[in-house]
Amino acid sequence: METTKVITEQNERKTSAEDTGEIMNVTRECAFQDEDKVEKEEFIFHEETIDLDGDALESEENVTISDNSNNFLDKLNEQMMESVLISDSPNNSEDDVGELGCLQDIVEEMDAREDYRCEQVTGEKDSNILNNNKADMENTPEDDLHSPSEKLSLKEEEISEPTIDEQNVENETAINTQAEDVSKSKPEQASVPYVSKPSPKDESIPVCTIFSQVSSQSPLLIHDGFEPQMVKSPSFGSGIETPGKPPPQIVQPSPSLSKFFADNGSTHSPASDFFDSFTTSSNFISVSNPNAGTAGLEKNVTVPNKAVGGSQDCTSPKFFVGNSESCGVRRSAAALEIPQSPKPFSQMQTVFAGNDDPFATALNMSDLDRRHDAWLPSEETQAILISLSTQQYSTIFIDKDKLTMPGLKFDNIQGDAVRDLMLRFLGEQAAQKRQVLTANSVEQSLEGLKQLISSKNWRAAVDLSGRLLTAHGQGCGKSGQPTSHTTDSLQLWFVRLALLVKLGLFQNAEMEFELFRNLDQPDLYYEYYLHVYPGRKGSMVPFSMRVLHAELPQYVGNPQESLDRLHNMKTVCTKILDHLEKGLAEDGSMINITQSNRQASVQLWRSRLGRVMYSMANCLLMMKDFVLAVDAYRTVINYCPDQEPQLLSGIGRIFLQIGDIKTAEKYFQKVEKVTQNLDGHQHKITVLMNRAFLSLGQNNFSEAHKSYTEILTMDPTNAVANNNAAVCLLYLGKLKDSLRQLEGLVQQDPKHYLHESVLFNLTTMYELESSRSMQKKQALLEAVAVKEGDSFNTQCLKLV
Amino acid sequence: MDVNQPKQEHLLALKVMRLTKPTLFTNIPVTCEDKDLPGDLLNHLMKDDPSTVKGAEMLMLGEMLTLPQNFGNIFLGETFSSYISVHNDSPHLVKDILVKADLQTSSQRLNLSASSATVAELKPDSCIDDVIHHEVKEIGTHILVCAVSYTTQTGEKMYFRKFFKFQVLKPLDVKTKFYNAESDLSSVTDEVFLEAQIQNITTSPMFMEKVSLEPSLMYNVSELNTINKYGESFSTFGTRTYLQPLDTRQYLYCLKPKPEFAEKAGVIKGVTVIGKLDIVWKTNLGERGRLQTSQLQRMAPGYGDVRLSLETIPDTVNLEEPFEITCKITNCSSERTMDLILEMCNTNAIHWCGVSGRQLGKLHPSSSLHLTLTLLSSIQGLQSVSGLRLTDTFLKRTYEYDDIAQVCVVSSKVKAES
């Protein structure tokens, strides 16, 4: 065999500069690192060939003029124009450049590249010009270079920080009064017989409605902040039990059951084992909350204008949440639970009957709850939960750092940016007309919270959620202190954090979310609170909160963490689906589940898995990993087949964003194929919308405008088409028409068009139109003031 | 805005806005389940939000177009588009308005106005609109100079100018490297491989629409950036059709001299122009850019006047056993007939057999002779054939030929066994 072909790599050190790669004069500084010598040679080469190579990297002329002659002309021009340039640029432009928000210089880039460009063949003359320009530019305001969001976040911090300080001060006093309150109320409570029904006194006072369930806890001693959380077996506490006490209103337990209860804790019968396995052992863990008990809410209800801090002085505890974790007082689960919810007993009954009739399972643990709450804890957490439910004789210590101890990190972000702007631009009188709901003007309850959310007063809603959480003992300064969780407290946290994210206050959300760590501490599972949620298993943390928790890091610049969390969630969802497929319950236990029940569960968990995949795709898109994002969105189609046209269109838009028009077109064609046999307006609109985007990608604004107009003939209220048509008009040089269209929309249908994006476009056009944009923007502000809540992002009005 | 009032009150206001492609509004989906505290509230809010995709509210990338928020970056080869609006802010009629937009670069001044016609009159609160486009061909400072002249009702001639400065940056970093392929039998048609590394030095992803090598007259080019599979050609870059900021891609091209050039001199000598790279890319919503490199030049490998190439060589030989190689010696000079002397110098491993320093006789221009040489290796392993020296007796110049080829030397026992 003969060697026929040998490819030899040129040894660059031996060969001359021309041999190694250089194309553009500007590429030189980035040449291969091991080619220093060559670089030098190249440098010489460049200097020598300036005349030939001066415009080495030039874009091609559309009109084909021969390169040489063109260069030559350039050279001539350079000679001729130079004086003109230097004479006019520095003095005049200084005033004018900064004046317009629309067109700005780029100083950073310039500075960064200066040295680099001085080396270039363009030569010394160029760098002279640069120096002049640099001097100019240092004087020009550069604010507009910062994205509005940056500005926004800065501002938010300014607002929130002082309030935190204030709150801290308030809290200190609050704690003092709290201590007094508790000691004062103790004798009272001690005299009240141990009935789990709220005492008459408690009833007479308006109670924070969400916690009514918890408030029925019997009073216990003061908590003094122990570090390790001690959870004791029932036998330990049985000495102080009051088993003989007849509960006021109960469903009469079956004889066998009462027997069981009588034996409870002291015998280790097979029956009790069985019983334990259904998580309703008499093991006593308190869910009561040591920190709660003083924050008064009723004051706010009756005196709406009073601030939160002021309400701390009320003397009587509205609802009592005891703190038995660390204290010796233990009460029988039976005594506690019977009046509260008779359900467990009937459930136990059926369990003992040992059958699986639908009624029994329905009662055993509400299917809905089981399905929704299912979650797979980490092994460590699982171990703790199991030992909690099975340990009978020994005491279990749970390390403090295994517990979740959330607390508000800031208290009052209530504020109305719209009103502030009105005050600044329209005067006090106008500002007074602004009417929005505040945390004080609604009922201090979940209903009030919902009212605030739906009226788009999310800041007020965050504020109210804070009050409600304070009432639960998780207020400001309570982070790191032992507390207990209920379904409602976690839901409240979820709402609060979700709203913070919606408001774009990601840092704030992150601060508070941090205290929940990975949402896997044992005290976030129902099993931890055997007596409060007997028979209930699974996660107290709502699934949506887990999603939010996973999504949050990507908004604060840590998308990798988001992906990690989402992948964990995906694993759990997949495992749960796996369990269901194998005929097990969600958590892998051998509970019998009816077919329809199982199907509903599979459906729920598939949709949850789909939700996680959606978040993953969104996160990847945010990371600009388009290839993976597209793959992820395609996977989402499997979970949400009904969204196929939208998702395919979305993928098409991703490709448009990258600039890959051809692939975008392919996806848009797929959409047309998919929707071909589907009726309905919506699909036709989707197809037309895609066509318009494709035209945009092909730089054909008039065609795009045509497509949008076509959509509008089908659906005149289509906000997107209206807005996009107006944008196209601007690019076609029809500023006035474009303005007319947008203005008309905002006036006719403020509900739809007072949207950030529309208003941003409108104000931008105002700025372009005339020097009197300010008045017009203020008119918009007035319109906004009437319609929008405190969550409105005033940034888009570009007033400041 | 209205902060810096020009010293002289003008009736007309000039506003300029760069028209980069609009962007798509993204929203942040926050959802909950029916069983959660807010019920369907959050989902409802998302449905009501006009910027979400109806039916797929969780999709982050919406359909709403938003105008560019700032000037952004402009790169060489892209098109600079700008809206120029002259608005009559005054309550008076203004006459004979002339708007002129020029672009001043470091080397030239270009007129960008679509029309240079004077507008007869402009009513209060109406405006003259112009959208200008210009493909940017120079790096560095550019100044858009907008000049407006008009006549007031009183007949006063007015004139003002505004300057808008921007920097044009370099979008790509391109490096090239040549590889020469030597072929044994038809050494006259040497191929050249060109590797081009293209790096995206902008801050946004860049879709490479076209990267092609336009060869010079002397060469034919074949692009080696696709793989043919089942009759379809796939890009070697797979599904990753774009370059992230600071990503680099390698493109490979094979250039063959056209037969008419290849025959002529036997070899292409000295500096040759290979061609130029033509690069077309697209960014957000099809914003297009295009660049060409200058002519790529290549120095042909330095064969000098005499070229020695290998015609045959065994790939495996036995240790300490003679083997033969065939060399081809070509006189590459244009008109000189040469007298050559061949010397054979032994190296560590390679031992030449036969007489060193023998005359090869007259070699005419562009002709060649074949020579069979015998040698043996005293060391096992992959050995390099080196040590040939040709001396041109007229010029007294010696050409050294080392590392001509490699040969695998194995123990004769091994060979025998196998």
TrEMBL record, chain A:
<feature type="compositionally biased region" description="Acidic residues">
    <location>
        <begin position="158"/>
        <end position="169"/>
    </location>
</feature>
<dbReference type="GO" id="GO:0030008">
    <property type="term" value="C:TRAPP complex"/>
</dbReference>
<feature type="compositionally biased region" description="Basic and acidic residues">
    <location>
        <begin position="143"/>
        <end position="157"/>
    </location>
</feature>
<comment type="function">
    <text>Component of the TRAPP complex, which is involved in endoplasmic reticulum to Golgi apparatus trafficking at a very early stage. Also plays a role in chromosome congression, kinetochore assembly and stability and controls the recruitment of CENPE to the kinetochores.</text>
</comment>
<dbReference type="InterPro" id="IPR019734">
    <property type="entry name" value="TPR_rpt"/>
</dbReference>
<keyword id="KW-0597">Phosphoprotein</keyword>
<feature type="repeat" description="TPR">
    <location>
        <begin position="685"/>
        <end position="718"/>
    </location>
</feature>
<dbReference type="GO" id="GO:0005794">
    <property type="term" value="C:Golgi apparatus"/>
</dbReference>
<dbReference type="InterPro" id="IPR011990">
    <property type="entry name" value="TPR-like_helical_dom_sf"/>
</dbReference>
<feature type="region of interest" description="Disordered">
    <location>
        <begin position="1"/>
        <end position="21"/>
    </location>
</feature>
<protein>
    <recommendedName>
        <fullName>Trafficking protein particle complex subunit 12</fullName>
    </recommendedName>
</protein>
<dbReference type="GO" id="GO:0005793">
    <property type="term" value="C:endoplasmic reticulum-Golgi intermediate compartment"/>
</dbReference>
<dbReference type="GO" id="GO:0016192">
    <property type="term" value="P:vesicle-mediated transport"/>
</dbReference>
<dbReference type="GO" id="GO:0005634">
    <property type="term" value="C:nucleus"/>
</dbReference>
<keyword id="KW-0802">TPR repeat</keyword>
<keyword id="KW-0539">Nucleus</keyword>
<comment type="subunit">
    <text>Component of the multisubunit TRAPP (transport protein particle) complex, which includes at least TRAPPC2, TRAPPC2L, TRAPPC3, TRAPPC3L, TRAPPC4, TRAPPC5, TRAPPC8, TRAPPC9, TRAPPC10, TRAPPC11 and TRAPPC12. Interacts with CENPE.</text>
</comment>
<feature type="region of interest" description="Disordered">
    <location>
        <begin position="120"/>
        <end position="199"/>
    </location>
</feature>
<feature type="compositionally biased region" description="Polar residues">
    <location>
        <begin position="170"/>
        <end position="180"/>
    </location>
</feature>
<dbReference type="Pfam" id="PF14559">
    <property type="entry name" value="TPR_19"/>
</dbReference>
<feature type="repeat" description="TPR">
    <location>
        <begin position="645"/>
        <end position="678"/>
    </location>
</feature>
<keyword id="KW-0931">ER-Golgi transport</keyword>
Automatic annotation (TrEMBL), chain B:
<feature type="domain" description="Trafficking protein particle complex subunit 13 N-terminal">
    <location>
        <begin position="10"/>
        <end position="168"/>
    </location>
</feature>
<protein>
    <recommendedName>
        <fullName>Trafficking protein particle complex subunit 13</fullName>
    </recommendedName>
</protein>
<comment type="similarity">
    <text>Belongs to the TRAPPC13 family.</text>
</comment>
<dbReference type="InterPro" id="IPR055428">
    <property type="entry name" value="TRAPPC13_C"/>
</dbReference>
<dbReference type="Pfam" id="PF06159">
    <property type="entry name" value="TRAPPC13_N"/>
</dbReference>
<comment type="subunit">
    <text>Part of the multisubunit TRAPP (transport protein particle) complex.</text>
</comment>
<dbReference type="Pfam" id="PF23647">
    <property type="entry name" value="TRAPPC13_M"/>
</dbReference>
<dbReference type="Pfam" id="PF23643">
    <property type="entry name" value="TRAPPC13_C"/>
</dbReference>
<dbReference type="InterPro" id="IPR055429">
    <property type="entry name" value="TRAPPC13_M"/>
</dbReference>
<dbReference type="GO" id="GO:1990072">
    <property type="term" value="C:TRAPPIII protein complex"/>
</dbReference>
<feature type="domain" description="Trafficking protein particle complex subunit 13 middle">
    <location>
        <begin position="172"/>
        <end position="301"/>
    </location>
</feature>
<dbReference type="InterPro" id="IPR055427">
    <property type="entry name" value="TRAPPC13_N"/>
</dbReference>
<feature type="domain" description="Trafficking protein particle complex subunit 13 C-terminal">
    <location>
        <begin position="314"/>
        <end position="409"/>
    </location>
</feature>
<dbReference type="InterPro" id="IPR010378">
    <property type="entry name" value="TRAPPC13"/>
</dbReference>
